[in-house]
Amino acid sequence: MKLTKLTILGSTGSIGTQALEIVRANPGQFRVIALTGNSNWKLLAEQINEFRPEIAVLTDDANAAQFRAAIKVESTTLMFGQAELAAVAGSAGHDLVLNALVGFSGFIPTLRALEAGHKVALANKESLVVGGELLTRYVNSGHDRLIPVDSEHSAILQCLVGEPEKELEKLTITASGGPFRTWNLERMRKITVKDALNHPNWDMGAKITIDSATMMNKGLEIIEAHWFFDVAPEKIEAVVHPQSIIHSMVTFTDGSTKAQMGLPDMKLPIQYALTYPGRQYLDTPRLDWSKAQQLTFEPVDYERFPCLKLAVEALAEGGMAPAVLNASNEIAVARFLNEEISYIDIPRVVRHCLESRDSNLEVTLDNLIHSDKETRIKAKAFRA
Ligand code: NAD
Ligand code: MG
Q1: Is there a contact between 120 and 145 (Cβ–Cβ < 8 Å)?
Q2: Which candidate, 284, 299, 294, 130, places its Cα nearest to that of 220?
Q3: From ligand 2's centre to the CA of 66, what distance in Å?
């Protein structure tokens, strides 16, 4: 088996640690070239001691001295800061970069890796939401330059293998509906941070868990699917499927629909992205089809989940709208987690930033950076 030289950006997070479990379970298949973390220096130091990468980046250097002291290997070059992280993404030495960063922080590293000709396994959906137009210049129709990690997009890719993509009619992205699927508007006014962090089917980082609770996550995924698969927005629909067994579906022009199924476990799409176009054994529980079970579907509810509607509208508007949606949502989620604003204020912050944005800006790297910064200031200042 060919050795894959792998870099994991965001190795201390939920996706990053699960990717390292896959590396650990397959000795001799991967060599870890670089690992990165933001503030969790203890875990990053443990990972360095175990996986002995050539390079490690800690973007937040507040605990640099303790971090250095915890590292027992001498062969790892240590770096600090965002610019170093992006430079590592674009540097030579790896065959595949797994981007498991969260938020806009992942965008420039994705761009640098693609520019340098590397393959990118992309968990950081925000990269495509903000800069899909710039990133897809480096992508080919074989999907082997930019490979999805998100379970829905991995499902779509698995459904497309061997199919003529020009005969694709519709993408159906499934959503669990999150913890508030059955709550009425009145009850939703009183949602606490604890309620929102309690996702029924998936155990994930805090930001995506809140995005799942507002269903902004599904909106971001519709935008992500548009760029990954070059499919027009009107051909992408979301549907609520509370069991999270069908991870997404593709309908073709002859009326046939393919679905990819499995128990909800991110290790499967992570491993698929690391081995694509191959597939290999994964030690994970299987669905028992001999037992009675129900797969149910419900339409999405824009009234109770306005974030989803805002995302769909931002995609239709195009240009910088998705980048403004993303930045304002990142701040709104952080403010909600800080208990500064309530759950129902999250879409209010996003709408305010979308409505007051400069809609004439062209999508360029400089404009994206500028708009991200300006939108964050506005979203922080917004009084709900
Ligand atoms: P997480 O919060 O658990 O981990 C994020 C990682 O990024 C950590 O290593 C952290 O140190 C690093 N990081 C955070 N802020 C940073 C910054 N400003 N600069 C540099 N590094 C920073 O997040 P996660 O749940 O692993 O999600 C990662 C990405 O994968 C997100 O885009 C998310 O939407 C996507 N995703 C996650 C899941 C999941 O199950 N967790 C599923 C699908 C998609
Ligand atoms: Mg997903």
Answers
A1: yes
A2: 130
A3: 35
- Does 34 reside within a domain? yes
Q: Is 38 in the pocket of ligand 1 (CB under 6 A)?
A: yes
Q: What CATH number has the domain bearing residue 59?
A: 3.40.50.720
Of all ligands present, the nearest one to the C-alpha of 98 is 1
User: Same structural domain for residues 26 and 135?
Assistant: yes
Residue 262 in contact with ligand 1 by CB distance below 6 A: no
222 Cα to the center of ligand 2, angstroms: 10
Domain boundary among 102, 128, 148: 148
Q: What is the pLDDT of residues 238-286, one digit of tens each?
A: 999 999 999 999 999 999 999 999 999 999 999 999 999 999 999 999 9
Q: Is the distance from the beta carbon of residue 155 to the nearest atom of ligand 1 less than 6 Å?
A: no
Distance (angstroms) between ligand 1 centre and the Cα of 106 equals 9
Quote the percentage of the chain above a pLDDT of 90: 96
Q: CA 206 to CA 337: how far, in whole Å?
A: 9
Are 161 and 247 in the same domain? yes
Whether residue 326 lies inside any domain: the answer is no
Largest CA distance in the chain: 62
Domain endpoint, select from 99, 133, 148: 148
Q: Would you say the CB of residue 37 lies under 6 angstroms from ligand 1?
A: yes
Residues that place a CB less than 5 A from ion ligand 2: 150-152
**Pocket test residue of 14, 36, 201 for ligand 1, highest count of atoms within 8 A of CB:** 14
> What average pLDDT does this structure show over 146-164?
97
Residue whose pair of structure tokens reads 């609770």 in the numeric block = 213
Q: What mean pLDDT is predicted for residues 143-169? A: 97
32 lies in which domain range?
A: 4-148
**Is residue 200 over pLDDT 90?**
no
Same domain, 16 and 65: yes
Beta strand segments in the chain, E: 4-9, 30-37, 55-58, 77-80, 96-99, 119-122, 146-148, 168-175, 236-240, 246-252, 257-261, 298-299
Is the beta carbon of 90 within 6 A of some atom in ligand 1?
Answer: no
Regarding the beta carbon of 244 and ligand 1, being less than 6 Å apart is answered no
235 within some domain: yes
The first and second tokens of residue 366, run together, are 């400089």
The pTM of the full predicted model, rounded to 2 decimals, is: 0.98
